[in-house]
Each structure stands twice: as C-alpha cells, then as structure tokens.
Design a protein that fits this description.
alpha/beta; seven-stranded parallel beta sheet; 7 strands; about 45% helix
C-alpha cells in the first residue's frame, strides 16, 4: 500500500497510536501539575555551540529567571536548550527537559535536569511545552524552531489557547522574516486580524527587556520569589 510505511503504521494501528498519545499527554500534564513555580519555556537551535555569545546569553537569561523564582523548560536537547537548562541548574531552579525520542542528534547526558520526559509525538511535546508557560522565548533556530513559533502564533491568533508573550531574541536575526510578514501577508490581508496578529510577537535582547514584556502582559506579575 504505497511507500509511506511510517504513516501507514500510525493510521492502521489506530488503537496503539491513540493509546500512546494518551499516555504521553497524561504523563506530560501530570508533570506540569507538580511544578508550583511560574514557568517559562525556551526554544532555539540545537546546533548553537557553548562557545558562542548567544549560548552564553541564553544561559544567563535562564539563570536570571531561575534566581527570581521561575521554573525553566526546554526541549531537553543541546544548543540553546542545553544553555537554558544549564542556567536553571546554576540557579537551583526546576529545570525541565522534554526530549524527543526520535531526534537522535538531540541527546543530552549532562545532569542538568530536575525533571525529564521523552515524547514520541512532537505535537504532544509542543503542547506540553507551552500549555502552562507564562512566556515562550525564542532564540535563533531553523525549521524546528520556526515550526514551534508559528504553531503557537496560530493557536493564539485563533483563540484556541490563551495569549502569552511570544518573545523573539536577537531582532537582527528575526527582522527579515517579520519584515516579510509585514510586507506580504499583512498588506495583502492574508492574516485574519490585521491589527492583532503581528502584535503577538515581541522582540528583546536582554533579560530586563524580556521581564518588561512579561510584566506588561500581566500587570500583576512580580518577580516570582
């Protein structure tokens, strides 16, 4: 029946697929319900080296959040994910790594997590990574990072989930993409709510700017301590 063996396995063994999705959702939601601190989630390239400025900046930002009473979540891989979990560990904060079982080049063995889960289904992983977070913070990345960014934008744009700050770090990296959004989909009215959609995205270059955006979105928020 064609060459799509992986796809066929999912829909032909529907009971197994549904059961695996249910187990991963149950495990993810149970984990979130153990986290009593406010939570922020970080995204970005798994290829970012530890000797780069952006890695060190991400580590500093995550540590600053941790020192102020936040829990830190990432996809549990190397690169930006490793930086933010390492920063959380330095701060003594909850450090959650939600890893992707099938992404074999994103394994991390360092003891930088207080909580880990591994997911077969990336859509379940993305759901758990966002559903309790007070902010979604995006560092430069490729297809995976863009996939996550636009999925969350669509969910907030359509009102399927609550709107929380989506903050892109390093405007010089992101400006080409968002200039294109302004010049093409926005001006041609391909976005549903013209006065709202582009405002879902904010830019920052420092921890102080990130916190200012979070406090603006939630006026009652204070440092979590």
């Amino acid at each position: 029946m064609g060459i799509f063996h992986k796809n066929t396995e999912y829909f032909s063994q529907n009971s197994d697929t549904v059961q695996k999705v249910k187990e991963e959702l149950d495990n993810g939601l149970a984990l979130l319900n153990t986290i009593e601190k406010p939570l922020v989630t970080f995204f970005g390239s798994h290829l970012t080296g530890e000797d780069t400025e952006i890695y060190q900046q991400a580590k500093h930002v995550a540590r600053a959040f941790g020192e102020r009473g936040y829990a830190i979540m990432s996809g549990g891989g190397p690169g930006i994910m490793h930086a933010t979990n390492a920063g959380a560990t330095q701060a003594g904060a909850p450090s959650l790594g939600l890893q992707a079982k099938l992404l074999t080049d994103e394994k991390v063995l360092d003891p930088i997590f207080t909580h880990t889960l591994a997911f077969h289904f990336l859509f379940v992983r993305r759901f758990i990574m966002s559903i309790k977070s007070e902010a979604l913070i995006f560092y430069p990345g490729g297809y995976g990072t863009l996939n996550e960014l636009f999925e969350y934008l669509v969910l907030m744009q359509t009102g399927i989930v609550d709107t929380v700050p989506i903050i892109c770090i390093d405007k010089t990296f992101w400006c080409g993409l968002f200039t294109w959004l302004e010049e093409h989909p926005f001006k041609k009215q391909y976005l549903i709510h013209q006065d709202h959609d582009l405002k879902l995205i904010r830019f920052a270059n420092s921890f102080e700017e990130i916190m200012s955006i979070i406090k603006e979105a939630t006026p009652t928020v204070d440092e979590a301590n």
